[in-house]
Amino acid sequence: MKNRSLxxxxxxxxxxxxxxxxxxxxxxxxxxxxxxxxxxxxxxDNRKITKYLNLEIGQFLFSYNxxxxxxxxxxxxxxxxxxxxxELPDTIKISIFKIMPIAMSIDSNDTIYYLDQSGKALxxxxxxxxxxxxxxxxxxxxxxxxxxxHVIKVLAELKKTNTNIYEKIEKIEIKETNxxxxxxxxxxxxxxxxxxxxxxxxxDLLREGFLVSLYIDENNFNPKRITYNSFGFIFWGIKYET
Length: 242
What we know:
The structure is a single chain. This protein has 242 residues and is α/β, with parallel strands linked by helices. It folds into two domains: 31-98, membrane protein fhac (Ubiquitin-like (UB roll), Roll), CATH 3.10.20.310; 101-236, Rossmann fold. Helices cover 34% and strands 30% of the residues. It has helices at 2-30, 46-52, 66-74, 146-161, 163-167, 203-219, and strands at residues 35-40, 79-87, 91-98, 101-106, 112-116, 121-122, 133-136, 169-178, 181-188, 194-198, 225-229, 232-236. The strands form two sheets. It has a nine-stranded mixed β-sheet with strand order 6-5-4-7-8-9-10-11-12. It has a three-stranded mixed β-sheet with strand order 1-3-2. Strand 4 and strand 5 form a beta hairpin. The protein starts with a helix and ends in a 6-residue tail after the last strand. The model has no long low-confidence stretch (mean pLDDT 83).
């Protein structure tokens, strides 16, 4: 009788062990890392990021420490925001956003500084990159200058939708004639002429202005003034170059 009870106990333990191992294998296979999704605002091979964070496809998802990975991202230079999240059953989502200057401006001390896409002044940022220069006769702090913030917003949208035209903008000057109204003077790298936009600046106008600058350059004429009204861009005092 004792031998029979012992046999039943051993068989039960074997069955329990079998299902335990089988359940562990199934659990492991379900929560195995299959995909890493990376959202970022800069150019870099995603494989470099996964290697830096020691991520390997096929590893057990819960073997990764989110806090450790975020600490590794935090020490990277010029990082504005980041996050690492587990998305069950098989995905890790990573977001990394670097500080990306969208323009530069000049403060009341005639010091040039960069502005990011949210309009925040990056006074301590020291980099070498070509971005549009914004000049304003209002020397308030950039975050409190609504007209400057509007220009930043337009440039950020333009860069997102058409980087090529964004890179062709040399300078935008803001002259406040009667707040909140103001005049905008836009320079493109393609020609020397200034585009005068009264009380209006948006992505579509910057695109059209660039096309007009190409037209002027290709046709070799030199208008004294270029303005925009309800009829479109108007050339004044056209002088053909030979």
